[in-house]
Structures are given as structure tokens and as C-alpha cells.
Amino acid sequence: MTCDAVRKLIPLYYYGELTPEEEDQAEAHIHDCAGCARQMEAARSLAAALDRRRMEAPAALLDDCRVDLAAAVRGLGTHSSRRPWRLWLEAVEATLAGFARWRQPLGAVALIAIGFFAARLIPAGSGVSAPSLAPSEAVFVNVRSAQPDSAGRVRIAYDETRRREISGAIGNREIQGLLLAAAHEEDDPGVRVESVGLLKDQAGSSEVRDALLNALLHDSNPGVRLKALEGLKPVAAEAPVRGALSQALQFDDNDAVRMQAVDLLTMRRDNAMVGVLQNLVQKEDNGYVRLKCEKALKEMNASIGTF
Predict the structure, then answer these.
(1) 19 and 99 fall within a common domain
(2) Could you give the number of structural domains in the chain?
(3) Same-domain check for residues 274 and 207
(4) Which residues contact 45 (CB under 8 A, 6 or more apart)?
């Protein structure tokens, strides 16, 4: 493991959140790396100091924080002239009075936490805005590391993702470009189904047609493949499309996909398909597909079997 990877795992290691394999790898690295050993010792010292510093918060503090948070979320201001986050930080500062060594690092982590949760609690378009952000944007922060230095400051590494929303006609180039990108979204098949479903009426565009063909042949989700077949129906007579339909008919493992593929292929007479249809009649388990193949062969005056 690299030093960077181990330092990211140190907080999880300290609280016993690593898998046995990760824990063994981290321990082996820390044993051989003086720098990471110092980081581990710093994490232990911080946790021990926090454990020693236990103070009761004022009784009214929680009620005040709830009122300020509710007011901020509704965009109604606060009962104080100071902003809720300033009141919160002042409360933290009072709690940590005399604990100067850790005040700045903890304050910085608190600010990151506020931004992280505010981005999720405040919906877009609610009228509540955050500094440096447009009202329609939300920022999602993933903190990777937080390390104190000898000067009492803290260095934080984090990833930031900004969410935006746009709307427009399906023919808009930017809208269409985003839908084409979403059609390749690996982690969310639901997004792919929605995107291909919206693109299916735009098969006249070569880019959209290519995306539909790619979805039909390569997408792992049958719902996406079925949406792609719907979109390809108006262009089913084109040679590249018929080739993809033939591939889907022969090799797709979903009965509904094969049934739609054979419907599109047999909408018009195509003698080039005789061999494919004959082979399918012999091996196809789905009765509907087999009957469609037999009917198409009879209409082309071709034999059911291969000779």
C-alpha cells in the first residue's frame, strides 16, 4: 500500500472499521514507514485528547441551533442578527476554550461537515442559497484526508462534485449530448433506461442511432435494450440496424428482446435472413420466436430446415 492510501485508512483503522486484510496491510506499512507511524500516533493523540475533553453544552444551545437551522432551511432568516453557522462556530469555540491546539483543525472539519450536509438538506430552487453557489447548484463534498500541521493549522484534501439542472427541448444539442452521455452511465441502469427512452424518438440522428445500436448490443440491462429496439423500429430497414437485430435475435438471453427483434426483422422480406431464420427454427426454445421464423421462411418460399 502507498503512504497516501494508508493515511486515508488511519482514521478507519483506529476505530476498527477496516477489513482484516486491509488492517494487516496497513499495519505492515505503518511498521516499516516512519512517516505513516507518526500519522498514526497523531490520530491516537487527537482521539485521546478529545476523550479527555468532555464538557456539557449549555441547556439552551440545542434549542437555539434547532431554531436557527429551521429558519435557515426555510429562508426566513434567524432570530439573531448573526448567521446560524456563525452562532454554531461560536458555540464550538466556547466549548473548546483553552483547547487551542485542536480548535482550528476541528473548526475546519466542522465547516466541511456543514457544507457537506447543507448540500443534501437544502433542495435546489428552494430559495436558500450558499456562499459562492448559484441557487440551482448543490455541492457534494467527500473529504479524503484531514491532517494537522505543527503550526496548528489543518490541511484537508477533498473531492467536490457540483450538481446542476438544465431543461430544454429534446432536439437541443446540449440536452441531447447529456442524454447520450447518460445512455452510457455504468453505475445506474435506471438512468440509462430513462435516457434511451427519451432518445428513442430521435433515431433520425446518426449519433442517436449509434447510441441505440450500442445499447441494443452491449447494455447489460434488458430494459435498456428493449427501449433501444423501440427507437430502432423506424429505421429497421437499414442494413446496419438489421445486422444488429440479427445479432440480438441470435444471441440475446432475454426472451422479450428476441421477440421484438424477430418482429422487426420479419416486417419486410429479406432473403439474406434465410440462413439465420433456419438456424433459429432448429435451436430456439421460445415458441413465439420459432413460429415467427417459420412464418417468415414460408413467405420467402424457403424450407424450414437447413439442407
Answers:
(1) no
(2) 4
(3) no
(4) none
Return the DSSP state at 300: T
Domain that holds residue 16: 1-52
Nearest one of 225, 267, 223, 206 to 242, comparing CA atoms: 267
Query: Are residues 132 and 76 both part of a single domain?
Result: yes
pLDDT string in tens for the chain (307-residue length): 788 888 888 877 777 777 888 888 888 888 888 888 888 888 777 777 766 665 666 666 666 666 666 666 555 444 444 455 555 555 555 554 544 444 455 555 555 555 555 544 444 444 433 344 344 456 777 888 888 888 888 888 888 777 778 888 888 888 888 888 888 887 788 888 999 989 888 888 888 999 999 999 999 999 999 999 999 999 988 989 988 988 888 888 998 898 888 888 888 777 778 888 888 888 888 888 888 888 888 888 878 765 4
Which of 11, 37, 52 terminates a domain? The answer is: 52
Residue 207 and residue 160 share a domain: no
Residue with cell 512517516: 35
**pTM: predicted TM-score of the whole model, two decimal places:** 0.48
State how far the Cα of 56 lies from the Cα of 301, in Å rounded to an integer.
90
